[in-house]
Amino acid sequence: MIRKSFWKAGERIKIRLMLIMGYLGAVIGAGFASGQEIVQFFVAYGNHGLQGVFVSILLFAASGGVLLYTTHKLKTSDYQKVLAYLCGEKLGGIVDFLLAIFLFLGLSTMLAASGAVFYEHLYLPKTFGIFLAYVMLIITLAAGRKGLFYSFNVLVPIKLILLILISGYVVIFGDIATQSNITFLMPQDEKYWLLSSILYVAYNFSLAMVVLSEYQSVSSPREGIWGAVEGGLLLGGLVLLNYLALQKFLPMIMHYEVPMLFVAGQISLTAKHIYTLVLWVGILTTAIANAFAFAQRFAKFTGLSYPLCLIFCLTMALPLSLQSFSGLVSKVYPVFGMLGILILGALSYRFIVDLMQGSRNRGSA
Q1: Alpha helices of 248-324 — where are they, by DSSP H?
Q2: Which of 224, 241, 300, 334 is deepest in the core (most CB within 10 A)?
Q3: Would you give the DSSP letter of residue 178?
Q4: Quick one: 42 exposed, middle or buried, by C-beta within 10 A (0-12, 13-18, 19+)?
């Protein structure tokens, strides 16, 4: 009896950890690991940026929990069915089509990011970095959903541990910039800090929704919801840690494309090399999420086998991945943000309606 209880407890913990890894794997990509997202959405708003961080923590936790509540209510792990429920059949189909396009563009962007890391920081050919990511994606995703879960369970902890070690070291031992410099160099209007934090969560949630929906099939409603909430809290905690680390090096980090590599370089050259690995793993996990979702969607649309569609989709992404990484980011991510706001708004609306209907039903009972 005791052994059975321990086994059940272990299974619950395992499921929650899987959801946490999935959430972190989808969101902590190139932009997060580079520090550029944290600078643009939080650090650039001065002291208000910290308030924005706490708003993002609450939003990540709440939106993850509500999504898993919704997938279990619908009894589906298909994000397309979730979109149809949230937005209606017609609008949901349009959103799904747009999301499919942006998943493909996101995949191309991550392949380009891999090439940029190898070229700019490891002094190797850009094409080598793209090809290595291409091969890794085929290997990890050949098994479909199992490959997605397994790759996140392996890669995300590595990324998480290294990120916490380096950012945590900087927060504790890093030099503190003077407040006068921080105030003087804030490039954003501080009154928009709340909008900035909402936009940050919204555009990250587009991809997170696709990944987290897959975990409905391996979790109970209780463990799924709590796992997503805990993943959102941990994700927000990492945003806070990176914010504190980056703020210590104002105003210098405002001039760097990859500010966290500059921060890691202030510790030592070895730390900088280690963080380059963190950055690449972040790119890889986001590419895995994009590639899996798009290949699965393409297989469903064409009726072809998933492995064949995976190779075909990855190969189609190669020409676009040869473009500039920063150029792709500037074009793709703003539209991702608008799509994310629509999805997040519809999710919140449906959840509130469910709560009101449940309250009325209990009142009339």
Answers
A1: 259-267, 269-302, 306-321
A2: 224
A3: P
A4: buried
Most confident of 21-35, 105-119, 350-364: 105-119
Q: Is 284:147 a contact under the CB 8 Å cutoff?
A: no
pLDDT score of 249 more than 80: yes
Q: Compute CA distances 60 → 67, 184, 252, 301, whole Å.
A: 11, 31, 29, 31
**φ, ψ for residue 248 (rounded to 5)?**
-70, -15
Indicate the burial class of 121 (C-beta count within 10 angstroms; 0-12, 13-18, 19 or more): middle
| Burial of 216 from C-beta contacts in 10 A (0-12 / 13-18 / 19+) | buried
| Count of beta carbons in the 10 Å neighbourhood of residue 1 | 5
| Residue spans of alpha helices (H) in 88-173 | 89-120, 126-141, 145-173
CB 26 within 8 A of CB 207: yes
Query: Could you give the 3-state DSSP secondary structure of residue 314?
Result: helix
Asked whether the beta carbons of 285 and 212 are under 8 A apart, the reply is no
What's the mean pLDDT in 74-81? 88
How would you class 221 by CB atoms within 10 Å of its CB: exposed for 0-12, middle for 13-18, buried for 19 or more? middle
Q: What is the CB-side half-sphere exposure of residue 24 using CA atoms within 13 A?
A: 30
In the predicted model, what is the mean pLDDT of residues 171-199? 66
Degrees (nearest 5) of the Cα angle 28, 222, 345?
Answer: 55
Residue pLDDT, tens place only, 122-132: 888 989 999 99
Both tokens of residue 106? Answer: 């996101």
